[in-house]
Amino acid sequence: MRENHQPSAIAAKRVKSNGLPPILIIGALFFIFGFVTWLNSILIPYLKMACRLNNKESLLVAFAFYISYFVMAIPSGIILKYTGFKKGMALGLFIMAIGALVFIPAAITRIYPLFLLGLFIQGTGLAILQTASNPYITVLGPPESAAKRISIMGICNKVAGAIAPVVLGAVTLKGADELKAKLVSMTTGQQDVALNELSSRVILPYICMAVVLGLLTVLIYFSSLPEINTEHEDEKLALANINKTSILQFPHLLLGVLTMFLYVGVEVIAGDTIINYGVSQGIALSTAKFFSTITLSCMILGYITGILCVPKFLKQDVALKGSALLGVLFAIAAIFTHGYLSVLFIALMGLANSLMWPALWPLALKGLGRFTKIGSSLLIMGIAGGAILPLVYGALADKFNAQQGYWVMVPAYLFIWYYSVKGHQVQSHTS
Length: 431
Known about the structure:
Layout: H1 7-16, H2 22-37, H3 40-50, H4 55-58, H5 60-109, H6 112-139, H7 146-172, H8 176-183, H9 188-200, H10 203-221, H11 235-240, H12 251-272, H13 274-280, H14 285-288, H15 291-309, H16 316-335, H17 339-353, H18 356-365, H19 372-381, H20 385-399, H21 409-421
Helix pairs in contact: 2-6, 2-7, 3-7, 3-9, 5-6, 5-10, 5-19, 5-20, 6-7, 6-19, 7-15, 7-18, 12-17, 12-18, 12-19, 12-20, 12-21, 15-17, 16-17, 16-18, 16-21
């Protein structure tokens, strides 16, 4: 017999008796997500120089990191069924710490595939963390305010994302413009010495990261974070899903996964290519290294807007619709302008992208009930868009130029707009 309780109601009862609010703990985890994820915006130009790569090769950084979400999403859902949310989060942090340690031999040897392996392992840990934390925060309260809670998490994520490039860039890209100019006149042996020194700069930051992630693993494991049982549905939802036997019977979720794929793809392009794009526009790397922080700052502004306006003034689907239209506008503007103005439009895509993640999750997970964990796993698979679309951009940038590569974003934003208008309402006719 099913319990007549919403998961959020169960969680609310437990939160009151457990001291530190779970939302603060999850907020700390989202901070970690942002810090680790948006280091890629610095690693791409850094490794492009250290390992002598072209645009497409350097964007394998994003590919290695985000493809792990596709590989690990379903296994993550299975893992969470056995571990529960809290232990699953601790496991994810531990795996991320291992990935950080792989950067040490990678930096010593300057072997690019080793860097990519470390990024893949970190992405694997993040896949488990994301599979647990996103549905957790979604059901930790009323569904109509889910976008607001995820927006709060987004601020934690993007504040960390804005800080991370500045911190790592100050260490790894110090004197990068001068080094780039000197490399032209160096002998092969001198180049190897200079690039080995450049490569070694990431060792200390990633040792520190591994230590912090290890400590967080212990803290989360022994925390008072309550478990939420998403296998239970309220009576109305249970009746609606009584004949549902497969996640494939929820087309609004499947369309949501494709939308997630495209959204993450354009978000990663906006955040991770802006530094190299600025350089291609004749801007010094010492200045361009701050551009991803501007993109993330625009996202923070958007998340604050979401907290203030959703759902009080804006419904979640309306927020997604407006964000998609802004994305189309900014992408086209970036393509047809030049210099700092064009870079500014790329940064403003952070504003357009900000409300997509918090709006997508509740729209795609609506009505899933006992299918919530597997539905979450599929949405996490959609994060692989961050692996594929940047490579498409990189191929276009190498064939044409860095600016024309941004055309890939326009159809992506248009499909996101379709999902916000109609796609999230599509229901299965299978009884």
